[in-house]
Amino acid sequence: MFRRRAATTPRVHHDMQDFPPRIATFFTGTDVAPTPDPDTRSPAAFLRWMLRQQWQVIAWSTVSCLLWLLPLTFGPYIFGRAVDDGILAGSTGALLAWAGVMLAVVLVGGVFGVVFHTLVVRSWLISLYGTTQMVTRKVAQMGHVLPRRSPTGEVLSVSSSDSDEFGALTEILARSIAQLVSYLTVAAIVLTMSWQLGVVVLVAAPVLVLAAMPLLRPLHRRQQVERSRNSELTSLATDIVAGLRILRGIGGEDTFGRNYATQSQHARKAGVSSGIWQAAVEAVGVLFSGVFLVTLVWLGTRQVQAGELTVGQLVSFLGYGLFMVGPIRTFFELAQKATRALVSARKAIAIFEQRPPWRDPEDPQPLDGSREMVDDLSGFTAHPELLTVVVSAVPEQSAALADRLGRYLPPDTDPVGEDDGDGLKGRAARRARADRERRRARIAARDEEAATREWGVRLGGVDLSAASLADVRRQVLVSDTGSGLFAGTLQDAIDPHGTLTREQAEQALRVANAEDVYDALPEGWQGQLDERGRGLSGGQRQRVVLARALATDAPILVLVEPTSAVDAHTEARIAERVSELRRGRTTVVCTVSPLWLHHADRVVLLRDGQVVAEGDHADLLAHDAAYRDVVVRSMDEEVSS
What we know:
By secondary structure, the protein is an alpha/beta fold. It has 21 helices and 12 strands. The chain has a 6-stranded mixed beta sheet, with helices on both faces. Helix 2 (about 55-70) runs antiparallel to helix 4 (about 90-140), helix 3 (about 70-90) packs antiparallel against helix 4 and helix 20 (about 615-625) crosses helix 21 (about 625-640). The radius of gyration is 33 Å and the shape is elongated. Mean pLDDT is about 80; it is low at about 5-15 and about 420-425. GO terms for molecular function: ATP binding. Pfam families: ABC_membrane (PF00664), ABC_tran (PF00005). It is found in: Cell membrane. It is a multi-pass membrane protein.
């Protein structure tokens, strides 16, 4: 059987599970126990929300790191006591005792070093994969609306590079907290030996961090520019890969290649600029750490000469001076990674704060896919159990009709990017951000208004806005030229929900005339398809998409130019087989192909988005000049091509 058996999963206590992370944000009605959506009020609020999701792992990482630092925290003190009590005092027993203490501390540090690094990798992966899952769920929740509001490159960058920044933040946070505790412990130890040197050690880190603060603002700004440039580059690369076959056909590879090279140079320059400021921050850390160490050695030597310190205590101070370089550099690293995480968080909340425009009614009415479907805007009627072909001289008008029949918002808005203020400062940058937010709000408001008012398409007398969106999707399936394929097996492409028998899947493949795709794959149904079907020809990809649409056996099927990429003989076979398969079901095909028109039960002509003629193909061809002009022109274009 082609039908797949659902995998049985053991019952898991989700309260104890942290990896793989259980993410059920952006609730779509399919989860038993949804989790709260992220806090998108500000980048800082979003980061706090992310850290709270795995506070236990971060806490255990902090404790492990603290124990890992034991040799560095107490090692100089133990070594100094061994020098004073053992070597200088000539006591072998005291020397062995302190050596035993040092061995125990080192063993504890070694064991918990392994534990700490294991937990750090765990927390990093939780953040990385958790963010990727949230992006996936947001894409599933928003559907076709998301590309209207955010560029594809932004979404991909949040899922890849930004998620890595969030993982880096969890690691440096646990390490910084442990280093802070260790730093305060060392300060307490040195204060008991010399209050002057203790004060130097205690004050050094805050002074050094404050010295680098003026550099963080320009670093933050340049990292934002770098992030936006990389996002643009990702979007451009995605568009090139998606349209590579077309680009080759029209000879546009060189043009797009030059555009990509230009954008990559912009990204490189932004990266160099960001790297210069990051190097400046690190240089300040190294410089001040060296000054601190030299100052500590000089003061300690003078106190030994004055008899205020023993040799062993001086050795301890020198060891602690070297140790304090670590916490100071860690605090600098925390400032840098927190800055990068804030930049990434700002990009992430631009995706996550968006809300789907669909609002299901409180008392949804059921839909009956066997009833008549009417579009008030155009005057179009899809009669039950008939194959209706919609003809228009402007393909966008028939595609817009298909969007309305499926209750999809029209893709007529360019997405609002996050790079409008790149390179700007002060008032100009604030004005660019304000303009971007106004445009984003205007798009969201329009989507909201369009999705909450009466839709204007009625199925069996029920407006689609009065039914739940899930019911609309069950009754009406729209397959247009933008429908794509995911990477996976041919079985997944035809039967993504695993509900078909082998016979049903083979029938869908045969009707779509896509048997050659099956034959070309060595493993048949388990043969692998590349993302977007890149290994297939344009016609093969289109026929696999058609087979997937036919396999759903939807009560109402709307096809937009389903055979535009196949030859005439193949198109004739597909049109004949589809008309036979869909007999008794409502089918709407938007095309001007005469091969489909010959099989139509009813033909509708659109002009300026309005129905101006309808009837039988032969009658319209004989008596309607406008219809004849559109169809004959289409036939002439096919012959010339």
